[in-house]
Amino acid sequence: MKILLKKVIEFLGNNCVDYSSRDGVSLLVTSFALDSRNCKEGSLFFAFDGTKVDGVDFLQDVAKKGVVAAIVPSYYSGDSYGMLLIYVSNPLVALHTLTKEVLKLRKTKIVGITGSVGKTTTKEYLASLLSIKYKVGKTVANYNTEFQIPFALLNADGDEDFFVVEMGMTTKGDITKKVGFAPTDYAIITPIGLAHAEKFSTLAEIASEKGEIILDSTIHAITHHSFLELCSSKSGNIYPTVQFQKELSHLSLPIHFRENLEAAARMAIYLGVDKEKILKQVQENALVDHRFISKKIGTNIIIDDSYNANPLSMRSGIEEVALMTLDKKKVAIVGSMKELGDFSSQAHADIRTRLNSVFDQIFFLGKEWGEGVISYDYLKKLLKKTPLQDSLIFIKGSNSHALWNLLEIL
Predict the structure, then answer these.
(1) For 106-284, which CATH superfamily applies?
(2) What is the mean pLDDT of residues 102-121?
(3) Helical H runs in 105-254?
(4) Mean pLDDT over the full length of the chain
(5) What residues have CB less than 8 Å from 226, skipping those under 6 apart?
(6) Judging by DSSP bridges, how do beta strands 300-304 and 293-297 pair with one another?
(7) Which residues contact 262 (CB under 8 A, 6 or more apart)?
(8) Please, which residues bridge with residue 293 across strands?
(9) Residues of the chain with CATH 3.40.1190.10
């Protein structure tokens, strides 16, 4: 979305600019950037402090690219390199303020999605289904932080009917902060479980914080039954339902993916998309990369479920494989589940027990599994030296393991 730099300054407070250097206020901002490498002519650059380098260290670089202005911390006293500098006490607060004010200028409705598992898949499904009838924007991949969401919204065209926003949470107050700058008109809460649980003591705490996505002004919410069992203070239409799951039963998807699809479909139907068109589209295209995708490679069948892992999604994937009756050796390549805090040891032990009962051979990656762990490099060498044959191979782990790269050697 294009916006006059003058308007940006008004949103952030007119005293944030040195009045002796206001020549650029009539310029047009055509994009917003956090990373100097993404800057181009017309960009507004946010110079955040970093752990290793600070954004102000790249002001000269972005000036050469034609950036119209840079938002810098108020302590900065260096060269402007010919750019207009907008001084703020906290660039992140400024980013949130700007996002909130820009959204007020648009007619775009915000659909927020949170939960412990299935957020990204549900977001992709919903954006696809809404696009049957509307112009739709969405956050990219699993970019769901207080830094990433604002840039997705600010860089949108601005004339979207709906924008689907995935909202992640790692600590108390995260969701409240996100709906503060992107208030939800509609909301979906996916299953609640142990994911990003390091800063929480109980599942009820996690559910309560996730529930902050439902505001008093939120028009309609769809929530997984596990949320309402843990947090009765927020209401929403419950899923999954027997009736809708029957309508999706013909799809070759694991149960938890059909649940994600139901949440997206029911929200799309509520928002006016024809149900028959939805069912037709999901039949033609219901798969999402690295989410329980079955591939035949040589004599092996690969179940690529390598996109992230927590106890809920890991167990769901294992149970789906347990139901498969193919005459093949069952092999699991499993990376550990990150950010579980005090729950980690028991969660890995429980999953390991179930893995041992389903699979004939298991490769464990990540110290969280305890004994018998191998390194990623050793596994690659092992698979190259002694390739797996005539096997059903299940691959899953937290994103930090990047296990999808194994597909190149299997």
Answers:
(1) Mur-like, catalytic domain (3.40.1190.10)
(2) 95
(3) 119-130, 148-154, 174-181, 203-210, 225-230, 242-248
(4) 91
(5) 191, 192, 193, 207
(6) antiparallel
(7) 239, 240, 241, 244, 245, 248
(8) 304
(9) 106-284
Q: What is the dihedral of CA 183, 173, 56, 11, to 10 degrees?
A: 30
- Evaluate whether 397 touches 365 at the Cβ level (below 8 Å): yes
pLDDT digits (tens, 9 = 90+) for 47-69: 999 888 999 999 999 999 999 99
Radius of gyration of the chain from its Cα atoms, rounded to whole angstroms = 24
User: Helix (H, G, I), strand (E, B), or coil: what is residue 50?
Assistant: coil
Q: Which tens digits make up the pLDDT trace of 283-325?
A: 766 666 777 888 899 999 999 999 889 898 899 899 989 988 8
Structure tokens, 114:
């949170």
What pLDDT, on the 0 to 100 scale, is given for residue 20?
A: 45
Residue 121 to residue 310: CA distance in whole angstroms: 15
Delimiting residues of CATH 3.40.1390.10 domain(s) in the chain: 3-89
What CA dihedral angle connects 392, 396, 402 and 403, to 10 degrees?
-20
Q: Is the pTM of this model over 0.90?
A: no
Residue of 400, 317, 342 lying closest to 366 (CA atoms): 400
Pairing of strands 28-29, 3-4: antiparallel
- The neighbour count for residue 23, using CB atoms within 10 Å, is 9
Q: In which element (H, E) is residue 385 found?
A: helix 376-385
Mean pLDDT across the stretch 21-37? 82
The 10s digit of each residue's pLDDT in 72-87 is 999 999 999 988 999 9
- The rounded distance, in Å, linking the Cα atoms of 328 and 27 is 65
Does 293-408 carry CATH code 1.10.443.10?
no
Considering the domain delimited by 3-89, tell me its CATH architecture: 3-Layer(aba) Sandwich (3.40)
Structural tokens at position 129: 């289904």
**Two tokens at 42?**
């017309």
For 42, which DSSP code?
T
Element of type H or E holding 350: helix 344-358
| 279's tokens | 């069912």
**Contact call for residues 362 and 216 (beta carbons, < 8 A):** no
Numbered ranges of CATH 3.90.190.20 in the chain: 293-408
